[in-house]
What we know:
This is Phage virion morphogenesis protein. The chain has helices at residues 10-24, 28-48, 61-66, 76-80, 99-104, 143-164, and strands at residues 82-86, 89-93, 106-108, 116-119, 125-128, 131-133. With 166 residues, the chain is an alpha+beta fold. It has a domain at 26-104 and 137-164. The model has no long low-confidence stretch (mean pLDDT 88).
Amino acid sequence: xxxxxxxxxxxxxxxxxxxxxxxxxxxxxxxxxxxxxxxxxxxxxxxxxxxxxxxxxxxxxxxxxxxxxxxxxxxxxxxxxxxxxxxxxxxxxxxxxxxxxxxxxxxxxxxxxxxxxxxxxxxxxxxxxxxxxxxxxxxxxxxxxxxxxxxxxxxxxxxxxxxxxx
Length: 166
């Protein structure tokens, strides 16, 4: 003797699943919401001076001498952060040339000559052979970012399932 299961109302279940799939077929709103979140969080890291690793950055020489914030001299880097959504891919970046050295750190040496020459806050000039910039990781996804992304996905799926009921 074989056991059997009878299912009633499978047409309703299939229709519900069709409505869910129709709504999930174009997740572009989700990708744009996540991209907005990532841009905001990168800008927050620049504002607060706390990296993707949740560690505060070493204060820059300029910020120590002139006051203000590290990586926020004129707002150029902060205002340049953008996101691009292409299909199911999100890219977050900047077009500022000096952004990589600020993110990864490194040593800047003169292209020609023996010295880098800088104007001091007092109006004078200073010559030095090299400048070391410590890493200040502002790009990337932190643990908190990952949690916020998962929350956005949960909200999206909840809305899809709720909307599909009607």
